[in-house]
Specification:
Length: 139
């Protein structure tokens, strides 16, 4: 894990989900995932958009790289994971990849929320996947 990600994770945990670095605020979630090939558990700090009490969106942007991030493949291989949220603590979620119009509408939420996501989209020819994280035991 990069030092940058580790610093983000530590700040998130030390400040109850608030990350001042890069002005993330309370917009991140920490997604626990298991390597599809390695079986090693990892944690990825990701921009999470909360849809409702039981659903968050994450985008596999990888800053506009030509390929998807490793965590994306891991979540597809092992979709039942836990996520640390600023408001709900650690919860169990099931991951679904959004397709078609549902994906497009979700992606529009990311581009509306951050210029960075608009730039990522311009840097790559791939369609950036969007995943929904659904709480396993809803409120």
């Amino acid at each position: 894990m990069s030092d940058w990600n580790q610093q983000i994770i530590e700040e998130f945990r030390a400040n109850g989900g608030t990350v001042t670095r890069a002005n993330f605020g309370r917009d991140l979630v920490l997604v626990h995932h298991v390597g599809a090939k390695s079986g090693v558990e990892r944690v990825a700090p990701l921009r999470g958009i909360r849809v409702d009490e039981d659903t968050w969106l994450v985008a596999a942007s990888k800053a506009g790289a030509p390929d998807n991030p490793a965590w994306y493949h891991n979540l597809l291989a092992h979709p039942d994971v836990s996520v640390e949220t600023p408001d709900d603590g650690t919860i169990t979620v099931h991951v679904d990849e959004l397709k078609g119009q549902e994906r497009d509408a979700a992606w529009a939420r990311f581009t509306a929320a951050s210029e960075g996501f608009r730039e990522y989209e311009q840097r790559t020819s791939r369609t950036i996947p969007v995943l929904a994280l659904h709480r396993v035991s809803p409120h």
